[in-house]
Amino acid sequence: MFSGSSCSALLSVNMRYLPNLLLAVLIWLMQIKWGLSQHEEDTTNYPDNNNNLSFQQLTIVTNSSENYFTMFETDFENFSVDYSTIPELCVKESNRQFHRWFMPTFYSMICFLGLTGNLLVILTFFFFKRLKTMTDVFLLNLSFADLLLTLSLPFWAANSMAEWALGMLLCKAMHTIYKVSFYSSMFILSFISVERYFVIAKAVSAHRYRSQAVLLSKLSSAAIWVMALIFSIPEMRYTTIVNKSCTLYSSRSDKLRVSIQSTQIVLAFALPLVIMCICYSSIIQTLSKSRSFERNRAIKVILAVVAVFLVCQVPYNVVLFLSTVVAAQGGPLGCDFDNNLLFATDVTQCVAFLRCCLNPFVYAFVGVKFRNDVLKLMKELGCMSQARFFRYTNGRRSSGAMDTETTTTFSP
């Protein structure tokens, strides 16, 4: 039996050498795991399987451990880390600040001008019952498509300024309305160019179907809206709220982004551009052979139509194409490139939205008869005095050629 003093002495000795014992066991386990080759005198002094250590053995192991950690510290001092291989955090605060003030400002301006112009077109059609030609039907549908987009712009402005707090239903509706109006507008512009081609370049053939023209235009418009709705199904399905923001894509390298943006570029830009170029180039060739004094003005209107489409759509689709390529490759190519791409996307998207304001002037108000009807409507609504109405309309009588159905789009 041990006395109390003997137990205390033994306990104090054990507590004294316990850290060295634990350190020795740790070194033993490290050597077994990594297969370190130590000197022969150190390896022969490791504890046996029964873990029975004498004070001499403990002293040898302790010295060995000190030598090992001294060597480890020396190696660590000579060790260097290549920080260039570690990816840096891309800071986008400047882009966020630009997005918060730039997008709402332009959205508000486009919304006001788009609502004013397209509402005037729609009211003029209904007030004077102008749906008498294919062009009239297409222009009315174009105004409805642009009006839908302008009505969604306040929600886009709210989403760019702060966190989305309007719920999932309005989030999906905002993206769906935008895409439906976008596709329908591009398709209608294509159909207008085809209709103008047959009326002017193929006048004899088009005259045979003049009685059925309005019915065909209504059926074509219905088909356009159905197609636009079908191509907008991804927005209905995949739009969600990510990080308190209403968005269609979960990341910059999302595979869904690649498929949707590729479809949009092909169907809503490349295809309409090809159709418009073919049709309007044929129309210009036909008009250049004519000796009518309205020929030059009509050609200028056609060039204005094509120029507006190119200026509004080409920059945005070029940036959209670059964004699609980057997403297909797995993500941004660098922080500076990514920030510049985001800046370009914001700017070119606002330029593309300007078509909502310009379409009424390029396609509707450019016609003399339509412009006079708009002025008459403003006079009836009390927005214009009788004297000013006569001053604007005096001496602007249209000739017989300008009273035809071709004047809606191509007369001055």
User: How many DSSP-defined strands?
Assistant: 2
Can you name the CATH architecture of the largest domain?
Up-down Bundle
Question: How would you spell out the order of helices and strands?
Answer: HHHHHHHHHEEHHHHHHH
Figure out the total of helices.
16
Number of domain units: 2
- Estimate the global geometry from the Cα principal axes: elongated
Separation of termini? Answer: 121 Å
Q: Please bin the fraction of helical residues.
A: over 70%
The CATH fourth-level homologous superfamily of the largest domain = Rhodopsin 7-helix transmembrane proteins
The CATH class of the largest domain is identified as Mainly Alpha
The whole-number mean of residue pLDDT values reads 77
Q: Which stretches of 5+ consecutive residues score pLDDT under 50?
A: 1-14, 36-62, 397-412
CATH topology of the largest domain: Rhopdopsin 7-helix transmembrane proteins
Strand order of the largest sheet: 1-2
What does it look like?
With 412 residues, the chain is an all-alpha fold. The protein has 2 domains: 12-80, no CATH class; 95-410, Rhopdopsin 7-helix transmembrane proteins (Up-down Bundle), CATH 1.20.1070. Helices cover 75% and strands 1% of the residues. It contains 16 helices and 2 strands. It has helices at residues 4-34, 40-43, 55-78, 93-128, 134-161, 167-201, 203-208, 213-231, 233-238, 255-288, 295-328, 335-353, 355-364, 368-380, 386-393, 407-410, and strands at 240-242, 245-247. The protein has a two-stranded antiparallel sheet. A hairpin with a 2-residue loop joins strand 1 (240-242) and strand 2. The longest helix has 36 residues, at 93-128. The chain starts with a helix and ends with a helix. The model is unreliable at 1-14, 36-62 and 397-412 (pLDDT under 50).
